[in-house]
Amino acid sequence: MAEHAETFELTNMPEEPSNPSSPKRAAGTGKLEIVEPIGDRVLIRKDEDKKQTKAGIHLPDKIEIPTITGRVVAISAKVERDEDYPIKRYDRVLFNPKHAIPVEFEGDNRLFVIPVEDVVAVFRKEA
C-alpha cells in the first residue's frame, strides 16, 4: 500500500475543508474507520437531491430532482500521482453514476466509490 495514500474517515466528514489532518474515532469502538479508494478510483459524497425547483416550487417527499454532482472526499494514491487527473480532495465534481459503488455507513447513503474516468468535470472558481 502507498505511504501517502489519501484516506477518508467515515465519521463527521465536513462538507468543506476544516482540518483533514485531525482524525476522530468512531463512536464507541476506539478504532478509526476509513475508506481508501484503490486503483483508479475516488470517493465522492454526492450532493443532496433537490427538493425545490429553481422557480421555488417545493416538491413532495417522494419526488426529487436527482443530482450527479458531489464533493471528492478521498483520492487513491494512483490518481493523486497521475497528472492527467487534476482532481484534489474537496473539489466539487460532475460525475457519471453508472459505475458508482455505494458505500453505506451509519445511514449515510451519499458516499460512492467511482472510477476516475467517470468524473467528467471539476467545478473551479476563477482566481
Report on this structure.
There is one protein chain. The longest helix has 5 residues, at about 75-80. The chain is globular and about 45 Å long. With about 130 residues, it is mainly beta. The chain has one domain (about 10-125): Roll (10 Kd Chaperonin, Protein Cpn10, Chain O), CATH 2.30.33. The protein has one helix at about 75-80, and strands at about 10, 35, 40-45, 70-75, 90-95, 100-105, 110-115, 120-125. The chain has a 6-stranded antiparallel sheet. It has a two-stranded antiparallel sheet with strand order 1-2. The chain contains 1 helix and 8 strands.
Descriptors for this entry?
single chain, 127 residues, mainly beta, 10 Kd Chaperonin, Protein Cpn10, Chain O, six-stranded antiparallel sheet, two-stranded antiparallel sheet, 1 helix, globular, disordered N terminus
The biggest sheet, with number of strands, parallel, antiparallel or mixed sense and barrel status, is: 6 strands, antiparallel
| Beginning-to-end CA distance, first to last residue | 36 Å
Overall spatial form:
globular
Write down the CATH class: Mainly Beta
Please state the structural category.
mainly beta
Whole-number mean pLDDT: 75
Give the SSE order as H and E letters: EEEEHEEEE
What is the CATH third-level topology name? 10 Kd Chaperonin, Protein Cpn10, Chain O
Please mark out the parts with pLDDT under 50 across 5 or more consecutive residues, or reply none. Answer: 1-8, 10-25
Q: Tally the beta strands.
A: 8
- For the biggest β-sheet, the strand order reads 6-7-3-4-5-8
Determine the strand fraction and express it as a percent band.
25-35%
